[in-house]
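Quick check before the chapter quiz. The format below is the same one you will see on the exam, so make sure you can read both the input and the output lines.
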Amino acid sequence: MAPAAASGGSTLPSGFSVFTTFPDLLFAFEFVFGGLVWILVASSLVPIPLIQGWVMFVSVFCFVATTTLLILYIINAHGGETSWVTLDAAYNCVAALFYLSASVLEALATILTRDGYTYKQYHENISAVVFSYVATLLYVTHAVFSLIRWKSS
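Here is the expected output.
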């Protein structure tokens, strides 16, 4: 019974209670840090297009999907159905896996090309890596507590 209480119950919140329940509160932080990753990767030089393309895809996909889910939760589109709890858990697991792969690849691209950058460009890429790992941690935390909520529903 304690895991369900820790994760905000076994149903999804609606309205602005999304911003007061855990793990749904993490949507706001995922939105901010995902947006920062998107902005930093978009403004950086692209030395390895395939790697940075994947990072850009992940950041845009997760930003749009997180925003969409947040709006759907606020307008109570889920209607309290348990299938939405499954969707929430599945999405957060996929997003966590995507962001982990993107973070590792962005770190690799930054390490491999550090000599070809100016000081400012290198620090911009380091910032993208750091924010990407923060977003990964947020999505992993959200996924774990969404899975707990899914199991208790």
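If your answer matched, good. The chain has a mean pLDDT of 83.
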